[in-house]
Specification:
The protein is an alpha+beta fold. 46% of the residues lie in helices and 24% in strands. It is globular.
């Protein structure tokens, strides 16, 4: 994922959480809000990680799953929140859980 597609900063995360739509399932929570820009941005919040290694590994896995979706749907900011325990989940199961949530959140945010 390109740096310009990354959502950074506490205030931007807070704005998406305050005004965005939410989809969730199995501990994964995705919030999306229209941003009025020609690009989409994604940010990741990993909760209760005992070690930085687990937190960063899960963040990289989620970023790899969300990157293709973000590049094809401009104009949306996305925040993906997940517990660190999902680091132990198989790649296929993680993909099957995350991709529909992100796609659904984007569709809802655009419909607003």
């Amino acid at each position: 994922m390109n740096r310009r597609h990354r959502l950074r900063g506490r205030s931007r995360f807070a704005a998406v959480r305050a005004s965005g739509v939410e989809t969730r399932s199995g501990g994964i929570r995705v919030r999306a809000a229209a941003n009025g820009l020609p690009i989409s941005r994604a940010g990741f919040a990993i909760m209760s990680a005992p070690h930085a290694v687990a937190r960063n590994r899960l963040r990289r896995r989620l970023r790899a799953l969300v990157a293709p979706i973000v590049s094809h749907h401009p104009g949306v900011d996305i925040v993906v929140s997940a517990p660190a325990a999902l680091d132990a989940v198989a790649a296929n199961a993680l993909r099957d859980a995350v991709v529909p949530l992100v796609s659904g959140a984007i569709a809802e945010a655009r419909g607003r």
